[in-house]
User: Which sequence fits this backbone?
């Protein structure tokens, strides 16, 4: 595996692979890798001739009060994991290389970013779409892989790609979980022992929603109330939001719509804000 720091160099390499008619699979990450990330890498390996992974903790998607400075990092361990998976290139740029002096162009997906994570983190998605489009232009992939863990991110990126005629297949991959159901996340590192035990409440509340839907209940208020009760049966967690939306428009739903429903929530477990979701 080669590690590339310079956007121009990465772009030249991508151009070469394109000239050689090789299919490029790309997995963007912020590092501190876990099995969730690696599931994307494995899928990319299966479907392409060459795999590029990026690790970049993107400052423009963090608000000033968020965890940019303490976001967990372990590049040596990440390198090892990616080598073992047979990744061909790791793109690991610096902030200055990605945002040199004079940088002033941003991409904004307007409506889809006003709700859910966008309502709680108003500047977040503008940073995400901007960096993802930059990374796409640098790595020139045929396919790019994203986790359903960040459901709204996946929906927003699909919208951006369609709206701006970006010729890349966006592949969404299922959420990888710990044994007790907690969705894997780099931010789980912030949880102390007590928090970690209670963090399972997000998954438990989604399981509750699933049970209710399977028993024929489709009223979203009833489902949200039951999810809230599940979380409130724990001591530490504090709900940021529980929402049930259309997967395509993200508008709030009164009734569950088969194949077009996203149940999502954000919960503070101690100081750590965790998200999880369920696609119906
Ligand atoms: P991050 O490093 O958190 O920006 O995540 C990089 C990519 O990995 C994103 O597309 C995430 O949705 C995906 N991802 C993160 N956690 C998981 C998980 N538990 N299961 C599947 N994909 C994940």
Assistant:
């Amino acid at each position: 595996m080669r590690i590339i720091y310079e956007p121009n160099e990465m772009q030249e390499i991508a151009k070469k692979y394109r000239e050689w008619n090789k299919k490029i699979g790309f997995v963007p990450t912020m590092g501190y890798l876990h099995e969730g990330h690696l599931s994307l890498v494995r899928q990319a390996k299966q479907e392409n001739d060459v795999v590029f992974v990026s690790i970049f903790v993107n400052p423009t998607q963090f608000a000033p009060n968020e965890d940019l400075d303490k976001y967990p990092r372990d590049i040596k361990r990440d390198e090892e994991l990616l080598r073992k998976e047979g990744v061909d290139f790791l793109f690991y740029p610096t902030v200055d290389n990605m945002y040199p002096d004079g940088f002033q162009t941003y991409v904004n997906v307007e409506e889809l970013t006003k709700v859910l994570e966008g309502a709680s983190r108003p500047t977040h998605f503008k940073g995400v779409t901007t960096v993802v489009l930059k990374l796409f232009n640098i790595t020139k992939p045929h396919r790019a892989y994203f986790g359903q863990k960040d459901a709204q991110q996946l929906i927003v990126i699909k919208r951006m790609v369609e709206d701006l005629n970006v010729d890349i297949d966006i592949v969404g991959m299922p959420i990888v979980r710990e044994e007790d159901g907690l969705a894997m996340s780099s931010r789980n590192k912030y949880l102390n022992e007590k928090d970690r035990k209670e963090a399972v409440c997000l998954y438990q509340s989604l399981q509750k929603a699933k049970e209710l839907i399977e028993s024929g209940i489709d009223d979203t208020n009833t489902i949200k109330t039951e999810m809230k009760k599940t979380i409130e049966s724990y001591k530490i967690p504090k709900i940021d939001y529980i929402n049930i939306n259309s997967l395509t428009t993200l508008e709030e739903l009164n009734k569950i719509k088969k194949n077009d429903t996203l149940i999502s929530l954000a919960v503070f477990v101690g100081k750590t804000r965790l998200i999880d979701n369920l696609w119906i």
Q: What stands out?
A: The chain has two domains: 2-173, 186-279. Strands lie at 2-4, 24-29, 50-55, 89-91, 143-147, 169-173, 238-246, 261-269, 272-279.
